[in-house]
Structure prediction request, 444 residues.
Amino acid sequence: MLRILSLLASRHEMYVFSTSQKRVSVELVGTNKVRDKLKNFDELSCASVSFMGVSSTGSPEELQGLVPNLRQLDLTGNLISQWQDIFSLCQALPSLEVLDLTNNTMENDFVESPLLKNIRVLVLNNCGVTWELIEKLKVPFACLTDLHLIWNKLNIITSPVGKFVQGFDTLRLLNLEDNHIVSWDEMVKLSYLRSLEQLHLNKNKIKHVRYPSNLPSSGPLGDVAVPAFEKLQVLLLGSNEIEDFPSVDSLNLFPSLMDVRISDNPIADPAKGGAPRFVLVARLGNVKILNGSEVSARERREAEIRYIRLVMGKAESNDPEVLKQLHPRFAELKAFHGIEDEKPTSRMSGPQKMASGLISITLKCVGPSMGEKQPLTKKLPPATTVGKLKSLCESFFKLKDIKLRLFLEEEQGCPLPQLLEEETASLVELGIGTGATIIVDEES
Prediction:
C-alpha cells in the first residue's frame, strides 16, 4: 500500500494527440494545487486506494511516517483479509477515524486485538462477515459511532450473552441494508443499544414491524429498565414487504422516532392497494420527515383532516372500540381538530338540506390538447365518484374524445399530485373536502 500511496504523488506529463499524431501538452486547472498537496503527505487527511490490488498494509512505521494525519482511508475492493493487518494499520495511524473495507473478503475470526479508540466509522459492506464476528469486533472498535454492514446476509442476530445485543455503547448509526432480514424479532435484539439513533433497514424482506412492549422489567445488565429503542430517531424501512397498518401504527410507540422511510412497501403504494401519503402522515403522529420529505405543519393539518373525513366516510363500524383498533389516532385527531359527526336537522329539507351537504372543489385543466381554459369551482355531492367526476369534467370543459386522468393537487410541501385511480371511489372516501383542487389532465 505504501507504493500505491507514493504513486499518487508522482508527476506525469499530461498531453493529448493532435490530428497529425503530435503530442500537445495539457495543463488542467488546479493541477498544481493537487500536486503540491500530494507532495506533502504529512498534511494528507483523506486517501482512497480502492481497487488497486492491495493485499498488505506494509510496514506500520513507514506508513505512520508517510501519512501521520490521515483521517479517512478507503480500501474498497482490494485483497485484504487479515484482521491483524487492519489492527496494525489503525495503530500506525492514530489520526485515522474513518475506515472503508467494502468488498474485501475478511476472515471471520482473530486471536488478539488492541483497543482502537481512534476509529469512529467502520464500513464492512460486502465483506462476508457474520454477526459472531461483529460481536468480537466491538472489543477493539469500542468507540464506533457508525457501523455499515450492507450486503452481508446478516439475517440473524446472535448475541453470546442473553437475548439482547450488549456493548456498542457509542454506536449511533447501524446500517443493515440489503441483508435478507425477514423477521423483525431479529431487530428487537438491538433494543438496548443505548446510543443508537439511526437504524437503516432498506432493501430487506421485513413483513411486519412491532414495537417491543413485552420486555423485561429490568435492563439486559440487571440495571433499571429503559424504553426499547430509547434514542432511535431515524428508521429506514424502504423497499421491504410491509403491508399492514398495525406495522405503521406501531411506529408511534418508538419514544424518539422522527424520520421514517416506508416507501416501496405494499402498504405505501396506492397502486397496490396501499395508503396515499396523507393517510401515512395522519397515522404517524410524531414523524417530521416521511420518505425523505419534510412534513410541514400545514401538510400535517390538512392530511389529518382529510384522514378524518376518509374514516368517517368509510367507517367499517360505529363501535368506538372497533374504530380504535382499526384507526388508533382517529378519536384523538377528531377531537383535536374539533370535527363533529354530521347530524341532519329536522329544520332543513329538500334543496336546502341537499345544498348543505355539498363540497366545493376547484377544477383545473392542464392537458396540452384541451386548450386554454379557466379553472372552475363547483359544488358536488361528497358521494361523487372519480368516474362520475370525469364525465362531469367532460361536460364542464366541453371536452370530446379525450381520455381523462384526475389528480388531487397536494398541499404545499408535498412532492407530487395524487393520481385518483379508483373509478368507483367517492370524494368523501378519498378524504377530499371543500377547498380541494382537482387537476384535469389527459392520458398520455
